[in-house]
Write a structure and sequence with these properties.
Strand content: 15-25%
Helix content: 25-40%
Number of strands: 10
Distance between the termini: 88 Å
Number of helices: 11
Number of domains: 2
CATH class of the largest domain: Alpha Beta
Radius of gyration: 38 Å
CATH superfamily of the largest domain: Bira Bifunctional Protein, Domain 2
CATH architecture of the largest domain: 2-Layer Sandwich
């Protein structure tokens, strides 16, 4: 009994006197290690009689527990002291310039969408949005696209394998025109909206991707005619390219949802092997447009004899390519930081008509 009390006193004194984590670990090993003093006492319990074990067992186990607690407390105190000492010696000079950190950029598509929204807002257009998963009626039928139209083919459209609760075929929208249908069925004229967003078609090459961005415009009111459409597009293109010498021409075309329909070409010149918007040396198609078809107006519950309108649509990605000099649409979606650093925009490059929509 006296030996155990002496061992406890000496070991606890050694724990208290340990001045480092290494010294404390040495005390722990000497007492509780495989060859330690207290470990040796625990081994003697198996050789005792039941009566002796009943007396000595609680004493030896109590010694082990008290020593374990003392070591844990001493270790925590030493670690805290070491941390405080390290913090007291460490200094951070806040007057030094911060290291150069990687900075993000605004994607050209996002920038161009902001530019378009700014331009059309000045002309009284609101921004409208719709779901990217559409039903067959809203995406095709309501827009006067017949069942036999090639746009409905499986090789052009991403269809879902199952129908919705009403039995309608579901798909990833192939254009943002369904937003026009949703707007006309929920709002009363006059309507002036643009509908930017992602669309999906089964196509992929240097100038096409399975997912790309479109913006469409819609005006529904009384007395609307092609002259309103031409003025709107001329004003938009001059503001977007920030040139007064932008020229357009309208070519007859066909779209199921407009009648008459027109493709819009923009004039450009070649300078140092690059296309520069302006003039009329060459022409390229940038927009599709036309007067909203009577059937589309009827499908939305409006009287085509009372209300008329025009619609137009273009690819946001291609506008960005044309304005900012990109030559491959696929790079828009590669996530290459080098490309984004070169073509991206700073967070403060906010488009304004007074300061110029282009950064």
């Amino acid at each position: 009994m006296t030996d155990i009390a002496t061992l406890q006193t000496e070991t606890l004194a050694a724990v208290t006197g340990a001045d480092s984590l290494d010294a404390l670990e040495a005390v722990r090993v000497a007492a509780l290690g495989k060859q330690g003093n207290i470990s040796a006492l625990l081994k003697t319990l198996g050789q005792m009689s039941p009566e002796e074990r009943q007396v000595q067992g609680p004493i030896i186990n109590g010694l082990r527990e008290s020593l374990t607690t003392a070591i844990a407390e001493k270790k925590a105190a030493l670690e805290s002291a070491a941390l405080n000492a390290r913090l007291a010696t460490e200094r951070l000079d806040m007057t030094l310039p911060a290291p150069e950190a990687p900075r993000g950029s605004v994607h050209p598509v996002s920038q161009v969408m902001d530019e378009l929204a700014e331009i059309f807002a000045d002309m009284g257009f609101a921004v409208a949005e719709g779901p990217e998963i559409e039903d067959d009626w809203t995406n095709f039928s309501a827009l006067n696209i017949p069942e036999t139209h090639p746009a409905r083919a499986m090789h052009d459209t991403f269809y879902f394998p199952d129908t919705d609760a009403q039995g309608r075929a579901m798909l990833l929208r192939t254009h943002t025109s369904p937003v026009q249908i949703r707007t006309m069925t929920t709002q009363k004229p006059p309507i002036r909206i643009i509908a930017p967003g992602r669309v999906y078609r089964s196509d992929s090459d240097a100038t096409h991707t399975p997912m790309f961005h479109q913006i469409e415009g819609l005006v529904i009111d009384k007395g609307i005619h092609m002259g309103h459409l031409k003025w709107t597009l001329e004003t938009f293109l001059k503001a977007f390219f920030e040139r007064d010498d932008v020229t357009i021409r309208m070519r007859p075309s066909y779209f199921p949802f407009t009648e008459p329909s027109a493709e819009i070409d923009i004039g450009y010149t070649m300078q140092n092997g690059k296309r520069v918007v302006g003039g009329s040396d060459h022409w390229m198609e940038v927009l599709g447009s036309g007067m909203v078809h009577r059937r589309v107006i009827e499908n939305c519950g409006l009287d085509p004899d009372e209300y008329q309108g025009f619609a137009f649509g273009t690819g946001v990605d291609r506008l960005a390519m044309l304005k900012y000099g990109m030559d491959d649409l696929r790079a828009f979606f590669d996530g290459d930081l080098r490309w984004l650093k070169h073509y991206g925009f700073a967070a403060l490059d906010v488009p304004t008509l007074s300061g110029g929509v282009g950064a």
